[in-house]
Sequence to fold (424 residues):
Amino acid sequence: MKTTAVIGLGWGDEGKGSAVDYLTWETEADTVIRFNGGPQAAHHVVLPDGTWHCFSQFGSGTLIPGVRTFLHGNMLISPLHLLMERQVLIDKGFEDVQERLFIDRRCPIVGPFHQMLGQVLEASRGKEGFGSVGMGVGQATLDEDPLRLEDALSDRVTLRKKLSSLIKEKQHLAEELSWNDEIKQIYEKFQKDLNPDLLANFYMYFAYEFSKNIVGGGEFLLDLEGPVVLEGAQGTLLDPVLGPYPYVTKTDSTLNPARELLPIDEAIGVVRAYGHRHGAGPFVTEDPSLEIAEDHNLDNRWQGGFRVGAFDIPSTRYAIEGNGGVDSLMLTNLDRLSGQDKIRVCFRYQEKQGTKNRLEYLQSCTPQYREFPGWGKDISGVRKYEELPFEARFYVEFLEQVLEVPIRFISVGPTREHKIVKSE
Fold:
């Protein structure tokens, strides 16, 4: 059984969904395991015929016939959004998606009370917001006694009691804040959803509706036989330990949770061909003058705009080391650099002495750049590495050399047909 793990080496949005779809197809995997994160994921997959889906909780191999998704107990789930995503996939013609979904009964649940508190807290920070996506995942990770899927399989009285306690706790925390009009609107918007009786009924309905899909995590892993792809969420630079607190996620964004599940035959780090970040926080190589089209990561209330800049070698090295190394890389979005006269790469930071933590370090260091010639040719139709323009190959091989990890795959477009195998 071959096991391939996919991890993002940036701030998220590296192209993990497209990578998982391709690697599931390429390895003929029959199972994709989501091993971290929660329903805030936005993993885009586009098929060669133009069919597309932005995966939140289903695995990004779901558009391939027969491929199963397993949501491991390390992943937080939102039953409401899982039902919505199931319906969207069915409407797109994938009518058997529920039959191919398996959920660990130990998965923590993200409820509307988490979402309310998360949004209220972010709104209270004003211009100092952390860049939360507003789904409540961070708040759910802080629960001492989290609501789990298996709680919905217990008796209704126990479930309602736990829900009532969690709702009161989150409401109390929200009411302690200094309110403004926006906070008041957010708080009031959620109140109709914070009824413990209605929520208990809904979660029990969900558990009944998915009763054939809820499994013991250990037993499911023991029964695996075919190739597997482990799908990571977020990005290593957002990891709560490695990242610049408080501009981090609350769940482990490295390969550690994957390594605890299964032996990994190949760990593939995914990184864009240029720097990027969606959300607030330090971004050493940000360049507002750089114009790169972005189809999916649009401006939104919680994360703001999508920021771009130069490829950041020091941060990418840091992410590779933070994962305990990776076997190879997939370099994505190389086609988006077509038409740039010059391409800058940050090869070193000029450090300020005396910084105390990761946040201060990134806020105070000065990037030092090297320039590369661009290429005017559209490369989205290239399917062999040797057919890429010389300038593109020179750029790729420079990155490969300084990162000291082989770039095995290059992506020049959104579909699996746009993936170029550079090296085996």
About this structure: The chain has a mean pLDDT of 93.
